[in-house]
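Lab notes, practical 5.
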Amino acid sequence: MLVDELTSLARKYPMVVVIGDMERPSRSIAKYARKVHYHIGEQLAQGDFTHVLAIGRWAREYLRGAVRAGFPTDRISYYRDVQAAQSDLERLLTPGSIIALKASPYTDLRPLRDKILGE
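Output from the prediction step:
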């Protein structure tokens, strides 16, 4: 799974993870989406990430799952949308850091990618 691979990399390199919603917000899947995002948060807690930025409606569950599983609260942040995360991401980047971006197409992380790449 992707989280396992990121956890392994974070043991070797400083890593910032930007993770957005994996599902389009919908009342019909709310219970399922919250559960899945919470579980992913629990998995993220196993990594020694420099910081985790959680973006989107269901992304609050990443934060809840990670913190409940022991991830430090000062190394995970929640943002309602991509624009709100931009300045913090820039502040968190250091030379040699790996940045992992993962979300559904619904949560468009391209503005962050473009900012990182200087496009």
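Observations recorded by the TA: The mean pLDDT is 90. The longest strand covers residues 15-20.
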